[in-house]
Specification:
This protein is an alpha/beta fold. The chain has helices at 11-30, 158-168, 170-175; strands spanning 35-37, 44-46, 51-59, 64-70, 80-87, 90-98, 101-110, 113-116, 121-124, 128-141, 149-155, 177-180, 194-195. It has one domain (11-195).
Length: 197
Protein backbone atom coordinates (compact mmCIF):
# COMPACT_ATOMS: atom_id res chain seq x y z
CA UNK A 1 0.00 0.00 0.00
CA UNK A 2 1.29 3.44 -0.95
CA UNK A 3 1.74 6.00 1.80
CA UNK A 4 0.29 9.40 1.12
CA UNK A 5 1.78 12.30 2.96
CA UNK A 6 -0.52 15.20 3.44
CA UNK A 7 0.41 18.39 5.15
CA UNK A 8 -0.78 21.92 5.37
CA UNK A 9 1.49 24.92 5.13
CA UNK A 10 4.12 24.57 7.77
CA UNK A 11 7.25 26.55 8.45
CA UNK A 12 9.17 24.10 6.20
CA UNK A 13 6.64 24.56 3.39
CA UNK A 14 6.92 28.33 3.66
CA UNK A 15 10.71 28.07 3.50
CA UNK A 16 10.81 25.66 0.55
CA UNK A 17 8.55 27.78 -1.63
CA UNK A 18 10.78 30.92 -1.69
CA UNK A 19 13.89 28.77 -2.10
CA UNK A 20 12.30 27.07 -5.08
CA UNK A 21 11.47 30.45 -6.64
CA UNK A 22 15.03 31.70 -6.07
CA UNK A 23 16.37 28.53 -7.66
CA UNK A 24 14.17 29.10 -10.74
CA UNK A 25 15.30 32.72 -10.88
CA UNK A 26 18.98 31.69 -10.84
CA UNK A 27 18.38 29.06 -13.53
CA UNK A 28 16.78 31.68 -15.80
CA UNK A 29 19.65 34.10 -15.26
CA UNK A 30 22.54 31.71 -15.82
CA UNK A 31 21.07 29.58 -18.59
CA UNK A 32 19.63 32.38 -20.69
CA UNK A 33 22.59 32.17 -23.05
CA UNK A 34 25.33 29.71 -23.89
CA UNK A 35 28.26 29.78 -21.55
CA UNK A 36 31.92 29.83 -22.49
CA UNK A 37 34.48 27.69 -20.73
CA UNK A 38 36.90 29.92 -18.87
CA UNK A 39 39.81 27.48 -18.89
CA UNK A 40 41.80 29.21 -21.61
CA UNK A 41 41.61 32.69 -20.05
CA UNK A 42 40.92 34.08 -23.53
CA UNK A 43 37.34 34.81 -24.53
CA UNK A 44 35.77 35.76 -27.83
CA UNK A 45 32.00 35.90 -28.19
CA UNK A 46 30.51 36.74 -31.57
CA UNK A 47 27.60 39.09 -31.00
CA UNK A 48 27.02 41.08 -34.21
CA UNK A 49 28.52 44.44 -35.19
CA UNK A 50 32.09 45.69 -35.18
CA UNK A 51 32.34 46.93 -31.62
CA UNK A 52 34.57 45.33 -28.98
CA UNK A 53 34.74 45.38 -25.19
CA UNK A 54 37.93 44.52 -23.35
CA UNK A 55 38.13 44.05 -19.59
CA UNK A 56 39.85 41.92 -16.99
CA UNK A 57 38.91 40.33 -13.69
CA UNK A 58 41.07 39.72 -10.64
CA UNK A 59 39.47 37.08 -8.42
CA UNK A 60 41.57 35.33 -5.76
CA UNK A 61 39.67 32.01 -5.91
CA UNK A 62 38.52 29.85 -8.82
CA UNK A 63 34.95 28.78 -9.51
CA UNK A 64 33.22 32.15 -9.90
CA UNK A 65 30.85 32.96 -12.77
CA UNK A 66 29.78 36.29 -14.19
CA UNK A 67 27.03 37.36 -16.55
CA UNK A 68 26.73 40.41 -18.80
CA UNK A 69 23.40 41.96 -19.76
CA UNK A 70 22.39 44.82 -22.00
CA UNK A 71 21.88 47.94 -19.88
CA UNK A 72 18.26 48.17 -18.83
CA UNK A 73 17.57 44.43 -19.13
CA UNK A 74 16.79 42.98 -15.73
CA UNK A 75 14.71 40.32 -14.07
CA UNK A 76 14.44 36.56 -14.46
CA UNK A 77 13.44 36.67 -18.14
CA UNK A 78 16.15 39.04 -19.36
CA UNK A 79 18.58 37.42 -21.79
CA UNK A 80 22.25 37.50 -20.90
CA UNK A 81 24.62 38.62 -23.65
CA UNK A 82 27.45 36.49 -22.23
CA UNK A 83 27.91 34.12 -19.29
CA UNK A 84 31.36 32.99 -18.18
CA UNK A 85 31.50 30.05 -15.80
CA UNK A 86 34.31 28.60 -13.70
CA UNK A 87 36.61 31.59 -14.09
CA UNK A 88 40.15 30.65 -13.01
CA UNK A 89 41.67 32.51 -10.08
CA UNK A 90 43.99 35.40 -10.80
CA UNK A 91 43.84 37.87 -13.67
CA UNK A 92 41.67 36.94 -16.67
CA UNK A 93 41.30 38.82 -19.95
CA UNK A 94 37.84 39.11 -21.55
CA UNK A 95 37.40 40.27 -25.14
CA UNK A 96 33.87 40.45 -26.58
CA UNK A 97 32.47 41.43 -29.96
CA UNK A 98 29.05 43.01 -29.38
CA UNK A 99 26.57 45.33 -31.08
CA UNK A 100 27.17 48.99 -30.26
CA UNK A 101 25.49 49.94 -26.99
CA UNK A 102 25.69 49.88 -23.21
CA UNK A 103 26.04 46.71 -21.15
CA UNK A 104 26.54 45.79 -17.51
CA UNK A 105 28.42 43.10 -15.63
CA UNK A 106 25.31 42.41 -13.60
CA UNK A 107 25.77 39.17 -11.64
CA UNK A 108 28.64 37.32 -9.95
CA UNK A 109 27.95 33.79 -8.77
CA UNK A 110 29.75 31.36 -6.54
CA UNK A 111 27.56 28.28 -6.31
CA UNK A 112 24.91 28.35 -5.00
CA UNK A 113 25.06 32.08 -4.19
CA UNK A 114 24.23 34.89 -6.63
CA UNK A 115 25.28 38.51 -6.14
CA UNK A 116 24.14 41.58 -8.05
CA UNK A 117 26.73 44.25 -8.88
CA UNK A 118 26.27 47.99 -9.43
CA UNK A 119 28.21 50.39 -11.63
CA UNK A 120 30.06 47.82 -13.74
CA UNK A 121 29.26 49.41 -17.07
CA UNK A 122 30.56 48.28 -20.45
CA UNK A 123 30.31 50.68 -23.41
CA UNK A 124 30.71 49.26 -26.92
CA UNK A 125 31.45 51.70 -29.75
CA UNK A 126 31.30 50.60 -33.37
CA UNK A 127 34.73 50.32 -34.99
CA UNK A 128 36.65 50.56 -31.69
CA UNK A 129 38.00 48.41 -28.89
CA UNK A 130 36.99 49.92 -25.56
CA UNK A 131 38.98 49.00 -22.47
CA UNK A 132 36.44 48.98 -19.62
CA UNK A 133 38.72 48.37 -16.64
CA UNK A 134 39.56 45.58 -14.22
CA UNK A 135 36.90 44.10 -11.95
CA UNK A 136 38.72 43.36 -8.68
CA UNK A 137 37.15 41.10 -6.07
CA UNK A 138 38.39 41.19 -2.48
CA UNK A 139 37.27 38.07 -0.60
CA UNK A 140 36.66 38.80 3.06
CA UNK A 141 35.27 35.35 3.91
CA UNK A 142 35.10 32.24 1.76
CA UNK A 143 34.28 29.33 4.06
CA UNK A 144 32.57 26.35 2.42
CA UNK A 145 29.70 26.36 4.93
CA UNK A 146 28.41 29.91 4.34
CA UNK A 147 27.97 32.50 1.62
CA UNK A 148 31.17 34.28 0.57
CA UNK A 149 31.54 37.87 1.72
CA UNK A 150 33.42 40.14 -0.63
CA UNK A 151 33.76 43.66 -1.93
CA UNK A 152 34.47 44.70 -5.51
CA UNK A 153 35.58 47.69 -7.56
CA UNK A 154 36.54 48.71 -11.09
CA UNK A 155 40.10 49.95 -11.58
CA UNK A 156 42.09 51.21 -14.56
CA UNK A 157 45.20 49.28 -15.66
CA UNK A 158 45.18 50.33 -19.30
CA UNK A 159 48.93 50.35 -20.01
CA UNK A 160 49.48 46.77 -18.84
CA UNK A 161 46.32 45.38 -20.42
CA UNK A 162 46.90 47.14 -23.74
CA UNK A 163 50.37 45.59 -24.06
CA UNK A 164 49.04 42.12 -23.20
CA UNK A 165 46.13 42.50 -25.62
CA UNK A 166 48.39 43.64 -28.49
CA UNK A 167 50.63 40.61 -27.89
CA UNK A 168 47.72 38.12 -27.85
CA UNK A 169 45.51 39.65 -30.53
CA UNK A 170 47.97 41.50 -32.77
CA UNK A 171 45.87 41.13 -35.93
CA UNK A 172 42.74 42.65 -34.36
CA UNK A 173 44.73 45.29 -32.45
CA UNK A 174 46.31 46.51 -35.69
CA UNK A 175 42.89 47.09 -37.28
CA UNK A 176 41.10 48.91 -34.46
CA UNK A 177 41.78 51.85 -32.18
CA UNK A 178 41.97 50.90 -28.48
CA UNK A 179 40.28 53.46 -26.22
CA UNK A 180 40.68 53.66 -22.44
CA UNK A 181 37.04 54.17 -21.42
CA UNK A 182 37.94 53.40 -17.79
CA UNK A 183 40.03 56.61 -17.62
CA UNK A 184 36.82 58.66 -17.91
CA UNK A 185 35.41 57.12 -14.71
CA UNK A 186 36.23 58.12 -11.17
CA UNK A 187 38.50 55.65 -9.37
CA UNK A 188 36.35 52.83 -8.12
CA UNK A 189 35.67 52.64 -4.39
CA UNK A 190 35.17 49.23 -2.81
CA UNK A 191 31.48 48.27 -2.85
CA UNK A 192 29.42 45.52 -1.29
CA UNK A 193 27.30 43.41 -3.65
CA UNK A 194 23.60 42.78 -3.23
CA UNK A 195 23.12 39.10 -2.40
CA UNK A 196 20.12 37.63 -4.26
CA UNK A 197 20.45 34.05 -3.15
Amino acid sequence: MRRIYRHEYSSIGLLVQPCFLLMLFSIFIFTSCASVNAGSRDFLVDGGSEGYALFTTEIPREGWSLSIFQDGDAGPFAKAVAVYESIPKGKNLFFLKLPEGKYMIRYLRRRPYIFELESCAIVVTSGKINYEGTLQVNLEQNAWYEAPRFSYRLTDDFAGIEAEFRARYSEIASRYEITDVAANREPGAWKQPNRLM
